[in-house]
Amino acid sequence: MLFSQASLLLALSTVVAAAPYEKRWFGSWGQESGSSVFDSFLEFGKRHSWRGRTTYQGQCNVAAVQMPQAPKPLPPPSEGLTLYHVAVGRGTQNYTCDTSNATAVPVAAGAVASLFNVTCMSADSPTLLSVIPNVALELPTPTANDATSPIYRDISGHHYFTDLTTAFFNLDTNLNTYGAGGFKKVNASDAPATAVKGQHGQGYGAVPWLKLQAKTKDECVFQEVYRINTAGGNPPTSCQGQAAEFEIQYSAEYWFYS
Ligand SMILES: *[C@@H]1O[C@H](CO)[C@@H](O)[C@H](O)[C@H]1NC(C)=O
Ligand SMILES: *[C@@H]1O[C@H](CO)[C@@H](O)[C@H](O)[C@H]1NC(C)=O
Ligand SMILES: *[C@@H]1O[C@H](CO)[C@@H](O)[C@H](O)[C@H]1NC(C)=O
Ligand SMILES: *[C@@H]1O[C@H](CO)[C@@H](O)[C@H](O)[C@H]1NC(C)=O
C-alpha cells in the first residue's frame, strides 16, 4: 500500500489551509461526490485495509484496539467489559446564562449530536480517526435535510439529554439496533492542550474527556461510554454579551463498552 496516512493528512491540511470555509465543504456532508473530505475519509477507512484487517461493510477485529488516553487518564472500562462500538459525534453543547446577573457564568444545559459509525476505523486507522473530530467540527451540523447524504449510510444514532444529568445515547435507527440508554458522568479529565479550541481554530477550548456509566444496569447492551478526542464545545468563561440560551459547536469520539 503506497498510500500512507501521513500523506493523506498532509493533503487534508493543505485543503483546509488553502480554501475559504464556504468553498471547502459545499455546505453539506458529502452530497456532492468528491466534495466532502469527511465522507471520503470514512470511505477510505473502510476500503483500505493496509493492515489486512478490514472487509468493506464487514465485521472488524476490535479486540486489540486501545482507546486513546487523556494526559491525566480516565479510569479504564470496568472489568469484563469489551469495546462494542465507536462513533464520531457532531453537534452542539448547550448553555444557559442568567442575563440579569452581571457576574454570571454559563451553565451547561445538555448537548445534542448525531453519531457516525467509525468502529472499523478505530481498528484499522487509529491515527486517522484521532483527527476526524477536528475535521467534523469544520463541517456544518447535520440536519434532517442531510438524511439523503452518503454519510447517513454510517449513522450510529443520536446523543441528547433527557434531563440535566442524563446523557442519552440512542443507537437504534432504521439501519441498526445497537442499543439505547441513559448515562451519568462518573469521571472527567481535561482535553490535551493541543486540542482544537473551536471552529476555524477559534473558541473557548475543547470539552473535557469523560467516562459515563449506565444509570440503570441492564437497560442497555452497552454499559459504559467514553467521550474522547474532543474538539470545541467549551463555553466562554463569563456570560457577558451572551444570550439566555446559546450553543457551542463541538465534535468528539464516543467509545461504547458492553
Ligand atoms: C477519576 O479517575 C482518576 C483516575 O482513575 C481518579 O484518580 C480520580 O479520583 C477519579 N475522580 C473521580 C471524581 O472519581
Ligand atoms: C451571579 O452569578 C455568580 C456567579 O455564578 C453567583 O455567584 C451569584 O450568586 C449570582 N448572583 C445572583 C444574584 O444570582
Ligand atoms: C459499525 O459498528 C459495528 C459494531 O457496533 C461494526 O460491526 C461495523 O463494522 C461498523 N461499521 C463501520 C463502517 O465501522
Ligand atoms: C439546545 O438543545 C436542544 C435539543 O436538546 C435544541 O432543540 C435547542 O435548540 C438547543 N439550543 C438552545 C439555544 O437551546
Automatic annotation (TrEMBL):
Key word Signal present: yes
Keywords, comma-separated and alphabetical: Signal
The keyword DNA-binding is annotated on this UniProt entry: no
Protein name per the record: Malate dehydrogenase
Signal peptide coordinates: 1-18
Organism: Zasmidium cellare (Wine cellar mold)
Recorded superkingdom: Eukaryota
